[in-house]
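Subject: Protein entry, chain in single-letter code together with its fold tokens

Category: Structural biology, sequence-to-fold work with a learned token vocabulary.

Notation: Tokens come from a learned vocabulary of local backbone shapes, not from coordinates.

Start of record: The labelled sequence and token lines come straight after this line.
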Amino acid sequence: MAGKLLTTSPGLTLVELLMVVAIIGAACGLVFVSTAEVGERQRLEGALHRVADAYAAARASAVMTRQPVRVVYDLEHNCVSVHSGPAEEAPFLVEFDEGLSMTGVSPSEDGKALSLVISPTGRGRSHVVTMECRGRLRGSVSIDGLTGRAEIAVSQMESGP
């Protein structure tokens, strides 16, 4: 036993181990960034669907009750409300959290709000609502006042120079 030679076993050096950890960390970082972007896109699309749903609910209410219904898009308070009677309280209200904001409604006289009256025949004005998500994504919902059809589009915002 005294004459037995010590041999080194093949293993990883510290540098090789650090390189493997760095590669795994970079891959995890890319996955995290891409899933965060997907999550933001889904939040924005969900908010645009809620805007379209508010209009659809108002349209259905006007047809069923045979009374005019008012839809208010309020950019200052970042919400959409549906008023189906003379009372000021909105039975249907959609509010958006901090990361999502309505940035434009057209056609709007003052640029801060748009109030639409939907007739009992189910007709209203065509309009477009624009929203942003954390300054990275911009989306819009275009609602046809005659048919009630909503088209949603989401795009990446261009970064400045």
